[in-house]
Amino acid sequence: MAGMSVLRSAGAMISRLQCAQRWALRTDGLLGRGAPAAAVPVRSAGGGKRVFVIRPSLYHDNKFKKYLKFYILLGVIPAGICISLINIFIGPAELAEIPEGYVPEHWEYYQHPITRWLSRNVFHPVDESYERGMTILYNENEKRQLRLYEDVARASMRKKGDGPWYYYETLDKNLIDHEPKSVPDQ
């Protein structure tokens, strides 16, 4: 906020200087006018109608901006310090030969230590995610096959007349109104 007020005052000063330079370099040879007279303050006595200008409150806007700045800095400063310390003291991993018979973990393929930590503790391994997706596809395929078998069985029962294909589901008994009524069939 202080930076904005400094920028605003600097901009006003620059515009005043540019205006003064334009007046100093101006030559009105035909009209015979020289440099303008000194600026005289104009007094506004307020003779107009008194008006109370209604503006929306800026309290909540300013409070939100202060909280936003505070919480961004609350997260950015420690994260920046932590990342800088990790980059300085730990640094990126170096590529080395894999010993025979050793199977690297999935996080050991990443170079940066923060990425390795996130891969190990936060995210799921790629092969585990793949297996989960394949399990979902397998279960959905099993459901689809069971629905097909059920449709074939219903069609067979309907064709041969040996199954409950004519059965209709009844309404739930909670939907039946058992209250006494003054007029029948209502």
Automatic annotation (TrEMBL):
Pfam families: NDUF_B5. The keyword Ribosomal protein does not apply. InterPro entries: NADH_UbQ_OxRdtase_B5_su. It is a single-pass membrane protein. Its main location: mitochondrion. The keyword tRNA processing does not apply. The chain crosses the membrane at residues 70-90. Keywords: Electron transport, Membrane, Mitochondrion, Mitochondrion inner membrane, Respiratory chain, Transit peptide, Transmembrane, Transmembrane helix, Transport. Accessory subunit of the mitochondrial membrane respiratory chain NADH dehydrogenase (Complex I), that is believed not to be involved in catalysis. Complex I functions in the transfer of electrons from NADH to the respiratory chain. The immediate electron acceptor for the enzyme is believed to be ubiquinone. Complex I is composed of 45 different subunits. Belongs to the complex I NDUFB5 subunit family. This is NADH dehydrogenase [ubiquinone] 1 beta subcomplex subunit 5, mitochondrial. It comes from Aquarana catesbeiana. The gene is NDUB5.
